[in-house]
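Reopening this ticket.

The earlier resolution said the output was attached, but the attachment link was broken on my side. Pasting everything inline this time so it's all in one place.
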Amino acid sequence: MQRYFIQSEQFRDQTILLDGEEAHHLIRVMRARPGDRIIVSDGDRLEALAELTRIDKDAAEARVVEWLAMDREPAVQVTVAQSLPKGDKLELVIQKGTELGACRFIPFISERTVVQYDERKEAKRLERWRKIAKEAAEQSHRSRVPQVEAPATWKQILQMREQFDLALLCYEQVGGSAGLRPLLQKLREEWIQRTSAAAKAAEARVQGPSVLLVIGPEGGFSEREAQQAAQAGMHLVGLGKRILRTETAGLVGLACIMYEFNEMGGAL
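Inline output:
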């Protein structure tokens, strides 16, 4: 069933209005007809199974059949900070990372970044990256569209460490000697303990832990950057004995995190 993200104001009590790109896709690409059903979400607090009641040339209207729970987001909130790679590799990272469950993407410039940063061009690329995240969220039936931020500096990435429960920098020099698993298991156990304590005390649900996953460019991080990251409180981790491409590393790290938090199936 097709899923569309729209603005909150397009929900009008039991009626939903679709226009713009969503209406174009629904009418021209999917060739929808009155009576067809879709899922519509504002990516925040409203999500509904809706039935199309009217289709015009550039707009459509639907009625709410059933309000749905927005429960498709991972418990663990992972931000992928990716040093700008060459070509369209970041598009792949955003698309597949969205499918895997990342909640946020932050491109950044590091010492060995090959891409020449052009603010005017990046504005257009940022618009495209956000569109890719939205389309991937619709395809994978996410409840929310991940944030895609404008490119940051390496200094800004280092300063973000304190915003997260755990910060991981993938550094090929450590190989398989400093793996993800012990750190993730410890974080998961701490979260389960907090959740259990909150449940016993009849408190509000404990928010899932936040993880920053930092990935270097094609040439990896310099030794100086690795030292700076460690000094900032990040853990330097490896993803095995093999060297992964920059567009592979983030997706592998993200999949490992989701697996350890049972987001690939199973219960805590």
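Reporter confirms the inline version is readable. The chain is about 35% helix and 25% strand. The two ends are 29 Å apart (CA to CA).
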